[in-house]
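Input chain follows. Return structure tokens only.
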Amino acid sequence: MPMRNKVRWMVFPPLILIALLSLKFVYGGGFFRWTSICEVCGAEQNTTEILWLFPWHRFKDTPLSEFVRREDIQGVHTHQWLFCQGGGNGILCALGSAHNLLSIVQDQSTQRFLGAVKRFKGPEEARVWLQKFLEPKQSDNLRSFFHPEQDDIKDKQSFNGWLEAQTLNWKEFQQENQVMTTNLNKK
């Protein structure tokens, strides 16, 4: 086989592969984008993956993660990312178990609550509450019970009274929820 034919056979297949990948990229999307939240501090990571080969990550502080860092509630840590939501490359809407955390990390009342806990109960207690708020299975329900207004946290006594009442309501809610779940499982 002449040298010219060998070169054609060496160059031609990679060119076809590049052309096919280009068509896939231009017409088939080729992108998948998703958002993750760190379950330790509430930071956000946005990822774009091109053709399942080239992930590009962009880290972003959320109001909650800025607050956590500023107040030194959570020390230095390795981010532990939970999938929230994503889409692309033929997938319209993918929801992860942590999709409800997107609203938690933006919510001012979460910061107000954690600040009051730190001020009146200490940093360890604030860290415990932060982890509860960043637990996907209970975060939305927690936020609906533990969202203090400014009047609820005037001083230690008023905050402790409010927290005690809300904790009692939370425990009652959990018990009712458990009973309903048990009844549904029996059917």
